[in-house]
Specification:
By secondary structure, the protein is α/β, with parallel strands linked by helices. The chain has two domains: 229 residues, Vaccinia Virus protein VP39 (Rossmann fold); 238 residues, no CATH class. It is built from 18 helices and 22 strands. The longest helix has 13 residues. The protein is elongated. It binds S-adenosylmethionine. The site of S-adenosylmethionine has 23 residues, from helix 2, strand 2 and helix 3. The site of S-adenosylmethionine (SAM) has 23 residues, from helix 2, strand 2 and helix 3. GO terms for molecular function: nucleic acid binding; site-specific DNA-methyltransferase (adenine-specific) activity.
Length: 487
């Protein structure tokens, strides 16, 4: 064996089902950048491919030069010591996932031994050679993550009590929003009697400081428990938690809003599914839309919720044929109808001034919808339908920067905090006819607390928004305050 070859004793590969569950616990869309620091035969690379993460977004490293079929699913560098490679690459990844080698540092040959023992521990001192290799891997993995990043690692059971790991254990609960440890009473790997734990740490830089330890029987129970993490409560680490005083930001600094599409003649352009069928208009000539406040009384709109509106007879199609559709017989006939026959009022200002008259200008695919006309207050209906847009009875919003799914839900939660909802009540303009409305300018001027990283922002926002939309605004505000201000 040459000095820089991994000993066979550390080549224990993660069962695919476990790798999948661990990835599922920390994945958030397909845009995250992933690192697998000792990728072996690629169980985690395969799991990531299964979640649709592009190979260019995944970096794999392994000391073992022997290639694996899964190497094609990521950018893999082999024959390299991760602890050496990682020195210059800190803070670059959204997620680190893996099962690092468990080898006493003293048993390594140089240069691996020298590199591992000189990795700087979280207290600023070199780790030394009394530790096991998994420990410098964990310290480096925490450093490799960006703010908001997530870690999922399989570690030996000794990681819970080994003296050499005490600083790293403390750091783990200090720097992540939430840490879950899953300890299996039976070994998780064939042919290995040593016990292991799975660590799922989410939201680097978050302030909730939640911690939960789960003890389970074996592999299947561990997988189930990992899948339930988002839904199980965790306790606060009381010493670490403080009420937060967040920075304040103007709504217009995080998102831009505008009114939805102005058709000029909604009777002609906005139709329901039944009308579409009667007129024989092919779906490619229409855009799915929301056109009324009640369509967005939801935390999130996706294909299924839109289909539900569609099946309920709501007007959820915007007729908007492109040049290539206007020669189709049914489209031509609809465009040619006279006003008396249900045709378009083409003389109207908005319509006669656009070219071609039937192509209603559309806002860019919105990140969320708002209504200024609801008696309830203001909430974001996040848009997870790939084509959904809105007409001008609603406002459409786009975040100014590309955000992860979790970040979008976190901002939506900030809007539901009680302080922001109080501003909304004050900002509403009441018209002579008693109608109260929030204009785009007033939405833009709202001051929002900059929220911390909230690892389960998606489910917290859903809960808070559902309370809000069912009329329990105070409770919704309290829940949002709890997560945004740690109250
Ligand atoms: C426990 S196996 C896990 C492999 C893979 N992560 C999995 O879960 O299936 C540990 C892996 O670490 C690799 N390894 C050992 N020392 C390493 C080092 N210093 N840098 C990078 N990889 C290393 C081994 O070649 C082996 O593939």
């Amino acid at each position: 064996m040459i000095a820089s070859e991994p000993p066979d004793s550390c080549k224990v590969y993660t069962p695919r089902s476990l790798a999948r569950a661990m990835v599922a616990a920390i994945v958030d869309g397909v845009d995250q950048r992933w690192l697998e620091p000792s990728c072996g035969t690629g169980s985690f690379l395969e799991a990531l491919a299964g979640f649709g993460v592009n190979r260019k977004r995944i970096v794999g490293v392994d000391l073992d030069r022997k290639t694996s079929a899964a190497d094609s699913l990521a950018t893999v560098t082999r024959g390299v010591d991760f602890l050496d490679w990682s020195k210059t690459r800190k803070g670059r990844y959204d997620c680190v996932v893996g099962n690092p080698p468990y080898l006493p540092i003293r048993a390594l040959h140089d240069p691996l031994r020298n590199t591992a023992s000189n990795v700087v521990d979280v207290n600023g001192q070199p780790i030394g050679d009394r530790a096991n290799t998994w420990y410098p891997f964990m310290v480096r993995a925490m450093e490799m993550l960006r703010e908001g990043g997530n870690l999922a690692f399989i570690l030996p059971a000794a990681s819970e009590y080994a003296d050499y790991a005490s600083e790293g254990r403390k750091k783990l609960t200090q720097i992540f929003d939430r840490v879950d440890i899953i300890r299996s009473r039976r070994p998780l790997f064939d042919n290995v009697s040593e016990g292991v734990v799975v660590i799922i740490a989410t939201g680097k830089g978050g302030t909730s400081k939640l911690f939960r330890r789960h003890e389970v029987e074996g592999l299947q129970a561990a997988i189930q428990q990992i899948g339930r993490i988002q839904r199980t409560n965790a306790r606060n680490c009381p010493k670490l938690i403080k009420t937060r005083k967040p920075e304040l930001v103007k709504f217009s600094d995080i998102a831009s809003i505008r009114i939805g599409a102005v058709t000029g003649d909604s009777k002609f352009f906005v139709v329901n599914e039944e009308q579409r069928k009667q007129l024989c208009l092919p779906k490619k000539c229409l855009v799915p839309i929301v056109s009324r406040s009640k369509h967005i009384r939801l935390p999130v709109h996706d294909f299924r919720s839109w289909q539900h509106e569609c099946d309920s007879g709501e007007k959820i199609w915007l007729f908007r044929p492109g040049q290539k559709h206007v020669d189709m017989k049914c489209v031509r006939s609809y465009l040619a109808l006279s006003e008396d026959e249900g045709g378009c009022h083409k003389e109207r200002f908005k319509i006669r001034n656009r070219e071609p008259w039937y192509e209603t200008p559309l806002p860019k695919h919105p990140d969320f919808f708002l209504t200024g006309m609801s008696g309830l207050g203001l909430w974001m209906c996040l848009n997870e339908h790939p084509q959904l847009n809105a007409t001008n009875t609603l406002y459409t919003g786009t975040f100014r920067e590309p955000l992860s799914r979790r970040e979008k839900f976190t901002w939506a939660l900030a809007l539901l905090t009680s302080r922001v909802q109080k501003q909304i009540v004050r900002a509403k303009r009441v018209y002579a006819d008693g109608l109260s409305k929030l204009e785009p300018g007033q939405v833009n001027g709202l001051i929002l607390p900059e929220p911390p990283v909230i690892s389960d922002a998606v489910s917290v926002y859903r809960r808070s928004a559902n309370l809000f939309l069912s009329g329990c605004q105070q409770e919704a505000g309290r829940l949002a305050d709890k997560f945004v201000f740690n109250q």
